Fold this sequence. Notes:
Mean pLDDT: 91
Strand content: 15-25%
Radius of gyration: 22 Å
Oligomer: single chain
CATH class of the largest domain: Alpha Beta
Amino acid sequence: MSANTRSKQLSVAVLLSGREKFAPHFGGAVARWTYEVYSRLSDRVAVTVFGFPTRKRDVYPLPHETSGVWRACDLLARVPGARRYEENLWLRALIRRLREFDLVHIHNRPQWVAVLRRLDYKGTIALHLHNDHLGHWSAPQLNVLAQELDVLAVCSEYLRSRSASKSSGLNAKARVVWNGANLQLFYPREEVREPKTIFFVGRIHPEKGVLQLLQAYEKVLDDHPDAKLVVAGVTGFGTHRETPYVRQVRELALLLANRKNGQIHFTGYLDHDRDLPQWFQKATVSACPSLCQETFGLVNAEAMACATPVIGANRGGIPEVLGSAGRLVNPENIAEFAAAISHLLAHPEYCRQLGQAGYERSRKMFDWGVTAENWMTLLDDTVRSGSYAPSS
C-alpha cells in the first residue's frame, strides 16, 4: 500500500476495556469483535489497538500497542477503591499518542469519554457498548455523556432501550450494529451431524444457566434415553477454576450418569476457530439458557450459521438474534425448557427446517462482513457529522 493511499485512510485508535488481551485464546468477545471487523476494513481504516501487553506469539495480526505504566495500573487495580485512578493513569499515559488519531473507539468504558475530553482530546469519540454499562447511570449523567461523545454504538435494540428512555440526547446518537459470525469457519456440515446431541458452550457460571440445562436434560432423558449432552467451556477467558458452582454442576452430571445412564461430556476449553465450529456442526440442538440479560449472544449466531437450531432464553437481546428462526423458553421453567428440547429431538424434519431458517438469517444479518460494512458506514457518518463541539 502506498504512503499516499494510507494518508487518506481514517485513523482509528481502539481502546480495549479492562485488561483484556488482544489474542484469540486469552482475549474475549471484545478482542474478537475488534479483530474480525477491523481486519476487513484494512484498506479503508488505519487502526491501532491499545491494550495491556499481549505476547507476540498470541496477538491478533493487527497493530497493537501498550504503555509502560501497565505495571503501575496493575498494582492500583488490586487496591480497593483505586480502580478509577488506575484508568486515569492509563489514559493519561496514552493521550499524546491518541491525539494523533481521527477517532477513538472505546469499548465498554463510558467513563473514559469524560476523561479523554478532560485530557483535551478533540477528535471523534465512538463509545461502543457490548454490555449494559449505562443501566445505573442517571438521566443527567447520560445527558452529559451525550454531549461529550459523537456516537453510541450498541449491539442490540435491547441494549439501546436500557438508556433511551432516560436521555433523548443519547438516544439520538445511538446506533445498533449487530455482532457477527465468521461464515468461513461456521457453516453447515450435515454429513457429521449426530443424532440427539444437545450442545452448550459458554462460561461455567451461574448466570449462564448450566445447572438449569442439566436439570432439563434429566427430564429429556425420560423421553429420549439415548440423548447426549455436551458442555463446552471454562470459568474464564482461557482459564478454569474449580468453583463451588462447577462442583455442583459436575455432581449433578455424575448423578444423572449413574441413575439414568446420562451421556454427558465436558470438553473443557475449546479453541474458538479450530474446535468450536465442528461441535456446532455435530450438534442436533444448541442450547443457550442464560439467566442474565444477554445483550446479544454471539454463540447463537454461530450456531445458526451451522444450521443448528437454537433453544435460547427469552430475555435480553437473544430474541432479537433468533427472531422466528429459533425457540425461546424461560430457562428457569425446567419443564418448558425440557419440553422444547424433547420436541426438537422427536421431530427431525422440524429440527432441520428450524436450522435452515437460522442459517439463512445468520447469512443475511450476522456475517462479520456485513458487520464490518455497517461499522464503516457508522464511522463515515460520524466523522462527517462532527457533532462534538468543545465548549469555549
